[in-house]
């Protein structure tokens, strides 16, 4: 036994060293993005892209941008501060590029190099309308005015490629569509200036996002202190994610500390000895340690919610320790004591592994992480009970313990509820039928906006930036499908034509699609014809007389501008307007979704997607999957119970965890807790822990250590409700709902485990006998 204990202790030390190395060394990050919980299914790579996959792709790209808005009453002071601030942000590890109005000459040169050879193929909507309506003279006069303007930037090269100055109008219109805040904005006596940072793709996955946000906040504070009157605002997914992660980490520390102290106090009030406390800590610590080591070994990043949830392992793994520790010292040697509880522990572990194993089949990484954490933690706790606790001298429960007195009182009260096996079978049938009906009839609420805590300051900043700079805007977008890139571009142009009236009516603030950056070949051909017949044929000679260079009509056989790798390098915005073979049209301030849907009704291969709704629908589908998986786990548990205890007793034993699930569902509904995918998945934990309770009692039923087991189950209930009840105090709504549902369910699990396994009156051991023996 000592050799096994030494080997197991070495395993725990190795797991501790590995987990510390992974977390401290930055090899495993902590993720708090709610988006990372969805869209992990294995999809057909050759099939059409799902709405949720598009949402993930686009929001992931959006997550690589951070926007800062600086404002001051003096423009020169503002620009000086912004330049200083931009330099500080650019120096941060993880910043890929900085966009600052008036400081992007390289970007302008890149755009001119890309677009200038195709100037005669590119027309702004207003220029195209003028030419279509036969008002080419307006464009000719504009070219003459531009030629003699003191601020002209014309060169011999630009005059050859674009003598009618069509490209500046195209770029000006494109800048308005992009809404990227390319200039200082004056409003209400204040000047506003955006500083936009493009972040490295691996910033989040490398676990350095917290460091980058800390550096950005320090730069903001520094520039604010150095510039009196300067106001700042910021937005970006990285700020929300880091704020949520920090809040979750704080919850982890608080829940773990309070739960541990509470459980230790409880054990102290039972034994009045430090040895059982030490034994419980060994089991709890090994469970937490093994669970964490398993998660960091398998997953590149741990979700913050899984980390919070992992803290509740304290309330589960301590159950195994308690069942050994409450056995009286006169029950025999450590081996004899283990022999008494090993069947119950083993069955409890098997059932828990089945329950948590079902979580691992979840299409979300969060539940998979919780499953791995829980299974590894419970196995480690089980091993610690077998290998480590027998080395600790036994200590009896003190007869004067207040918790023992509470146990005796509860046993006396609940003993009056004993019922014949026939009544229990009827109750079991009622539980099963009601549970099935509840799964179908109780409505779900999977609104993604209810899961996160949110940050009031960041939400306020995001609103200000969207209102003043026009950045951020509506999350609604349009996906254009199709195998041919040119067909998609033509569809995008048709969408713009259909939605332009809504922009004029202020039902849509604006839109930007790939076809706005790169017109289709069909549109470019039409533009060349309009420019040739409307401008060059009519005004080419007159303009040529005013220029120092000879101009020629557009070559209709010239190459077209197409969305290739070269275009993508000059236009990084393409990444935000393309997703795995589909083109994207981003909408801004979409206030009338119904009107947009109606306008798009006759256009094929177009899908209007609202990310919050798409994500909520995905969680609704997950919730249906969860109920099916839970039903499967219950069926397996029923078969095992019948095989172990026979038909009648097996049904009653199975009905206890099923009833606990029903108790959690009805209790949560009564208290107004949203019936979401995650609260449904929490029922797996209610099932696993409730199964532990009833199996421990069923194995000791009518046996000499039955009363010890009942005390251990009560102590387990107290520790579990303490741990999961603390989850109900979390600042993260998702975690709070999960904790509340589990705490409610476990109370029902305890009562039903007692009631369904009540011993016969002839063999019932009174609590007074414990004190007399």
UniProtKB/TrEMBL annotation:
The chain crosses the membrane at residues 255-272, 279-299, 305-326, 347-364, 370-392, 423-442, 624-643, 650-671, 677-698, 710-732, 738-758. Residues 1-19 form the signal peptide. Coiled coil: none annotated. It comes from the Bacteria. GO terms for cellular component: plasma membrane. Keywords: Membrane, Signal, Transmembrane, Transmembrane helix. InterPro entries: Mycobact_MmpL. This is Membrane transport protein MMPL domain-containing protein. It comes from Thalassospira xianhensis MCCC 1A02616. The lineage of its organism: Bacteria, Pseudomonadati, Pseudomonadota, Alphaproteobacteria, Rhodospirillales.
């Amino acid at each position: 036994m000592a050799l096994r204990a030494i080997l197991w202790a070495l395993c725990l030390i190795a797991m501790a060293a590995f987990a510390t190395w992974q977390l401290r060394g930055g090899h495993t990050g902590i993720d708090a993005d709610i988006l990372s919980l969805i869209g992990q299914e294995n999809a057909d790579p050759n099939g059409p892209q799902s709405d949720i996959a598009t949402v993930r792709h686009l929001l992931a790209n959006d997550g690589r941008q951070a926007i800062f808005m600086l404002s001051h009453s003096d423009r020169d002071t503002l620009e000086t501060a912004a330049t200083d601030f931009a330099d500080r942000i650019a120096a941060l590890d993880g910043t890929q590029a900085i966009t600052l109005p008036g400081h992007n000459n390289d970007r302008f040169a890149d755009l001119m190099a890309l677009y200038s050879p195709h100037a005669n193929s590119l027309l702004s909507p207003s220029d195209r309308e003028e030419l279509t309506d036969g008002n080419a003279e307006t464009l000719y006069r504009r070219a003459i005015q531009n030629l003699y303007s003191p601020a002209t930037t014309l060169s011999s090269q630009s005059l050859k490629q674009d003598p009618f100055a069509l490209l500046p109008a195209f770029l000006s219109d494109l800048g308005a569509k992009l809404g990227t805040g390319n200039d200082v904005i004056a409003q209400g006596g204040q000047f506003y200036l955006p500083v936009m940072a493009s972040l490295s793709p691996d910033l989040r996955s490398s676990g350095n996002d917290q460091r980058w946000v800390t550096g950005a906040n320090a730069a903001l504070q520094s520039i604010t202190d150095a510039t009196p009157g300067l106001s700042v605002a910021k937005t970006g997914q990285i700020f929300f994610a880091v704020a949520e992660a920090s809040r979750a980490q704080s919850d982890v520390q608080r829940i773990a500390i309070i739960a541990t102290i509470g459980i230790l106090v409880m054990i102290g009030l039972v034994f009045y000895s430090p040895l059982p406390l030490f034994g419980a800590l060994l089991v709890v610590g090994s469970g937490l340690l093994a669970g964490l080591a398993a998660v960091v070994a398998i997953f590149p990043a741990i979700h913050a919610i899984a980390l919070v949830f992992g803290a509740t392992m304290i309330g589960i793994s301590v159950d195994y320790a308690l069942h050994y520790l409450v056995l009286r010292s006169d029950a025999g040697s450590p081996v004899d004591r283990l022999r008494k509880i090993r069947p119950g522990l083993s069955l409890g572990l098997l059932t828990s592994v089945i329950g948590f194993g079902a979580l691992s089949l979840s299409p979300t990484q969060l539940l998979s992480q919780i499953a791995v954490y829980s299974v590894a933690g419970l196995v480690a706790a089980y091993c610690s009970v077998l290998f480590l606790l027998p080395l600790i001298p036994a200590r009896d429960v003190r007869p004067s313990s207040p918790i023992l007195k509470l146990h005796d009182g509860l046993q006396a009260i609940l003993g009056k509820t004993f019922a014949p096996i026939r009544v229990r079978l009827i109750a079991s049938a009622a539980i099963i039928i009601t549970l099935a009906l509840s799964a179908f009839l109780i409505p779900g609420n999977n609104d993604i906006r209810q899961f996160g805590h949110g940050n009031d300051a960041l939400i306020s900043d995001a609103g200000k930036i969207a209102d003043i700079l026009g950045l951020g805007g509506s999350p609604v977008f349009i996906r254009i499908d199709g195998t041919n890139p040119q067909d998609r571009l033509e569809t995008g142009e048709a969408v713009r034509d259909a939605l332009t009236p809504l922009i004029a009516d202020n039902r849509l603030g604006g839109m930007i699609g790939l076809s706005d950056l790169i017109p289709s070949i069909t549109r470019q051909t039409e533009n060349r014809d309009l420019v040739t017949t409307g401008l060059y044929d009519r005004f080419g000679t007159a303009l040529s007389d005013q220029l120092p260079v000879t101009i020629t009509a557009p070559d209709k056989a010239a190459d077209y501008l197409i969305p290739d790798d070269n275009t993508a390098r000059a236009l990084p915005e393409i990444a935000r307007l393309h997703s795995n073979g589909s083109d994207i049209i981003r909408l801004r301030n979409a206030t009338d979704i119904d009107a947009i849907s109606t306008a798009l009704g006759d256009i094929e291969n177009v899908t209007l997607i609202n990310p919050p709704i798409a994500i909520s629908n995905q969680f609704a589908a997950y919730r249906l999957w969860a109920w099916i998986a839970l039903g499967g786990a219950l069926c397996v548990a029923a078969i095992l119970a019948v095989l172990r205890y026979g038909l009648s007793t097996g049904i009653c034993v199975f009905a206890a965890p099923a009833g606990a699930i029903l108790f959690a569902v009805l209790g949560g509904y009564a208290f107004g807790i949203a019936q979401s995918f995650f609260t449904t998945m929490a029922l797996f934990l209610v099932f696993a822990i409730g199964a532990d309770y009833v199996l421990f009692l069923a194995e000791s039923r009518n046996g000499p250590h039955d009363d010890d087991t009942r005390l251990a189950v009560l102590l387990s209930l107290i520790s579990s409700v303490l741990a999961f009840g603390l989850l109900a105090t979390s600042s993260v709504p998702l975690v709070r709902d999960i904790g509340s549902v589990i705490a409610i369910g476990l109370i029902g699990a305890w009562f039903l485990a007692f009631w369904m396994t009540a011993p016969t009156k002839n063999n019932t051991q009174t609590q007074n006998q414990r004190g007399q023996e």
